[in-house]
Structure formats: structure tokens, C-alpha cells
Design brief:
Alpha-Beta Plaits, 4-stranded antiparallel beta sheet, flat, Translation elongation factor EF1B beta/delta subunit guanine nucleotide exchange domain-containing protein
């Protein structure tokens, strides 16, 4: 069984179990959940569950491995293997406990402290970015989806990078465009971007943000 409490905490700030797109880690945890989660008790898990469910036909072909997902199956498991370690952790300020407390050890400590301070001083300001999964719905099954996607990708803006895409069936022969993009938060407003896409009114009925995660 999946540890829904731990999964809820994890998905509160993430769209997927690991990385920025559906993977085998998501499939592994999805299959460990017996029934759809209660949206009132686990809103983040419920949102993620429905999203991964929409990929049901592609579960076997999704990339990655189930390793990260194992952290959320069962009661006690380690944090996901894909979790990034803090950059500062790779600087050992005080060396091994086995080092002798002598002049040589003190010299090594001083060098490590100096290297740590230099690294801190040299760190560039981090640019805030987000990975967004955007869904664009056409008017009907006769809408030219290739032309729709071409129109969407024609939008160029500083701080906007279009990624992969796919067509997802939504019923009655209609398919929606699901496209991934990376935006610099200070330069690109997702609301304004959706307004620009809506201007392609010959193709676009509506747009929705299916997932959004900070980088």
C-alpha cells in the first residue's frame, strides 16, 4: 500500500514523484493505491492521481524506474533517490573524526573553511524558474491539431522555453494538446501566456494549467 501521508507532503510542492514529467516512479506508486484518494483529505495526492490516471494507456512505456516510487510504498522508507542534496553538504568543514588533532589537521580544516567561504561568495543569484504542463483544448474533433500546436509554439518571449508535447484523448474523437514549458518567473506571466494562446480563436477553445512546479 502507498503511504498517502508521506506522498501528500511530497506532492505539496511537486507535480510528480520524481523529476518534471510522468515516469515509472509515478506508475509504481499509482498502482499501490487501491482506490482514488479523498480530495478533501489528500488534495495533492488526488490531483496527482487523476493526472497519472490520464496516462493509463502509456504506463508501460513511460521512462525512468520505480526506484524513487518505493519511498512512498509501505510505512517506512527512505526519501526518494532523486531528491537533490543541498549544495552546501558537499563541503566537509571539519574533516573525518579519524583525523589526528595536530597541526596538519588544523591546516586542512583551515583550507576547507576557506574553500567553503569562497564557494559561498562565488555563487550566482539563482533565477527563479517553473516547469509548467499546459493543456490546450480545441473546439471539436475537426480542429487541425498540428496547426494548433504550431500556433502555440509561435509565441516567443524572453524567459519562455517550449518543451515536449503530446495529444491526449478527451472523448468523442476530440484530443487536447498537452505541452510542457519552462518559464522564468520574473519574465513570463502564465496568465498573460494563456491570454495570448486564446487569441488563436480559430483553433483554441480554452487552456488550463495541469501542473506547475518550481525549479
Amino acid at each position: 500500500m502507498a503511504n498517502l501521508t508521506k506522498l501528500e507532503q511530497h506532492l505539496a510542492s511537486r507535480s510528480y514523484v520524481e523529476g518534471y514529467a510522468p515516469s515509472q516512479a509515478d506508475v509504481h506508486v499509482f498502482k499501490a493505491i487501491a482506490s482514488a484518494p479523498d480530495a478533501s483529505a489528500q488534495p495533492h495526492v488526488a490531483r496527482w492521481y487523476n493526472h497519472i490516471k490520464s496516462y493509463a494507456a502509456e504506463h508501460d512505456s513511460l521512462p525512468g524506474s520505480s526506484t524513487a516510487g518505493e519511498a512512498f510504498v509501505g510505512g517506512d522508507a527512505e526519501a526518494p533517490a532523486g531528491a537533490a542534496a543541498d549544495d552546501d553538504d558537499d563541503v566537509d568543514l571539519f574533516g573525518s573524526d579519524d583525523e589526528e588533532d595536530n597541526a596538519e589537521a588544523e591546516r586542512i580544516k583551515a583550507e576547507r573553511v576557506a574553500a567553503y567561504n569562497a564557494k559561498k561568495a562565488g555563487k550566482a543569484k539563482t533565477v527563479a524558474k517553473s516547469v509548467v504542463t499546459l493543456e490546450v483544448k480545441p473546439w471539436d474533433d475537426e480542429t487541425d491539431m498540428a496547426a494548433l500546436e504550431k500556433a502555440v509554439r509561435s509565441i516567443e518571449q524572453d524567459g519562455l522555453l517550449w518543451g515536449s508535447s503530446k495529444l491526449v484523448p478527451i472523448g468523442y474523437g476530440i484530443r487536447k494538446l498537452q505541452i510542457t514549458l519552462v518559464v522564468e518567473d520574473e519574465k513570463v506571466s502564465t496568465d498573460e501566456l494563456q491570454e495570448k494562446i486564446a487569441e488563436f480563436e480559430d483553433y483554441v477553445q480554452s487552456t488550463d494549467i495541469a501542473a506547475m512546479q518550481k525549479l
